Every structure is written in structure tokens, then in C-alpha cells.
Amino acid sequence: MPSPHVVAGYTVPRVMFQVLLALVPVLAVQVYLFGPGPLGLVAVACVTALACEALALALRRRSSQSALRDGSVLVTAVLLALAVPPLLPWWLLVFGTAVAVLIGKHAYGGLGQNPFNPAMVGYAVLLVSFPLEMTRWPVPGPPWDALTGATALDAIGNGLRQGYTMEEVRAGAGFGRVGAAGAEWVNLAALAGGAWLLGRRIIRWHIPVAMLAGLAVPAALAHGLDPGAYPGALFHLASGAAMLGAFFIATDPVSAATSDRGRLIYGAGIGLLTWIIRSWGGYPDGVAFAVLLMNLAVPLLDRGTVPRIHGQPRR
User: Fold this and answer.
1) HSE toward the beta carbon, residue 160, CA cutoff 13 A
2) In angstroms, rounded to a whole number, what is the distance separating the alpha carbons of residues 180 and 169?
3) What is the C-alpha separation between 209 and 205, in angstroms, rounded?
4) Burial of 51 (0-12, 13-18, 19+ CB in 10 A)
5) What does pTM read for this prediction?
6) Rounded to whole angstroms, what are the CA distances from 245 to 55, 232, 262?
7) What are phi and psi of 12, to 5 degrees?
8) What is the CATH number of domain 12-305?
9) Could you give the 3-state DSSP secondary structure of residue 180?
10) Is the pLDDT of residue 6 over 50?
11) What is the pLDDT of residues 205-260, one digit of tens each?
């Protein structure tokens, strides 16, 4: 094709399958820590997502061949499967995946039209509908069916409200050396996968850096002011879905802000909301709700931060 036309090398399938490849370390660490459960959940989510994608496209009288091969629905399925507890009943994941694909994605027109991150729509519906099952994680290492009563994030919130000191709360089985037991290694794996995506220029640095800063800075300030009531920045970065959210969820190009300045505000808002929900909210982790809330703000961010075309009147 002669100039000035440019052939883009980053097609949807190429991007999506590289994202899936970057998620392999996260899955491998989860299997090592929690047993084969995550593999089964990923398989169930992928089969359900492909079936729901085919159903939705058939109902909309659209061709399903290219959509089922582009990998986008598989990314949604794998992200959701990696975000839920490894021993979650399979039928709950089927329900959450169906919600993610049919409501979070196709109710708004399909790929490229959804205002909300589909995986987080499914996760939020599961968390609100089945809070007990969604907050029970196994203790890392065999026996893999030994459930802990609460995650480290949940233990801190409940323990401090009941009058325990930070040292007493952190003595529980759900805590590792830095963050939540097991979650610190999962977050390191997500960081490695995210760094690879940055190196491949699949994602840009603005959202991950802004989100992690938005989470770490208020956590560090609060810990400095009252270390007995607030865990430090390193704990927050190594717990929950911090790295998975920063590099794989918040960077969704469809539901995120489009300008560089908008991405910085968007990422920082997700980080700050995550810290607020973790510190004072009713749910142990806040990444899913923070992402969905900032998805709502994206049209406003784009309106205020996308550079005005020369000659176009101000709106």
C-alpha cells in the first residue's frame, strides 16, 4: 500500500493474545499457591464466555467467526477467573461470566461500545450477590481446601473496628511478609506481566503509574499520621488486586480515558477510590468498584482533557 497510508501492526487479536500471555505468570502463581482450582475456573470462564458471545451475536444477527477468534472475550473471562477466589463454586463463575459478557459488553453494543469494564461488571455483581463466597480465600499451600475466615484486607478492616491493634491483626494467618499471604506473590506476577506489556507497548504507563500512586500516596500519608490504624503503602500495593487492576483492568482501552492527561486523572482516581473503599468501605477490596466509578467519569474526563481541534469552537 503506497504512502501516506500506514498499516497498523497492533490488531485486536494480536493485542488480546499478548495480554493473555502476560496473564500466564499470574495463573501459574495462583496454581502454585492454591492448587488446581484456578485452572478449572479459567476453563469454565472461557467456555462460558465463548458460549455467551456466540449467543449474543446470534441474537443480534451478527457473524460470530471473527469475534470468537479475536481473543477479547477470553481476556474478560480470564481476568474475572483470576480475580475471584480459587475455590469459588463453578456455577457462580458461570453466572458472573454471563453477566460480564451479556450485560457488561453486549447490552451496550459489543466490543468497543461498552462504557464499563465487562470483567469488573461481572465481579461486582458476584460480590454484591454472594459476598460470603467471594471473600473466602484458601490459605496458600496444601491442604488447598483450608479456607481462611477473611482476607488480610478484610481482617484489617474488621479487626481495627473491633479494637485490635495493627500488630495483633497482622499476626493472623492471612498475612505474608509484606502484604496478604499469597496475594503478594500474585501481585508480583501481575507486575511482571504488566512490565512486559509496557515493554511491548501494548499498554501505556500513564494509567498504571497514576493508579499505583493514587493508592500508595494516601496510604503512606495515613500510615505516617497513625500507623496503628492504617497499613502502609507497601501493604496496599502487595494486597488484593492492586497490580492486576493497574496493568490489566484499568488499562482497558475501551472504558478508560483517551488523552494522556485524562489517563493520569483516571488512574489516580481509581487508586484513591480503592484506598478509600479499603479503609472505610464495607468490602475488603475496592478495585472493581473504583474502576466502575471512574468508568462513569470517563466522558467528563475526555470532554475536559482531549485537546481541541484547531479551529473547532470550545464546548
Assistant:
1) 18
2) 12
3) 6
4) middle
5) 0.89
6) 28, 19, 17
7) -60, -50
8) 1.10.3430
9) strand
10) no
11) 999 999 999 999 999 999 999 887 888 899 899 888 999 999 999 999 999 999 99
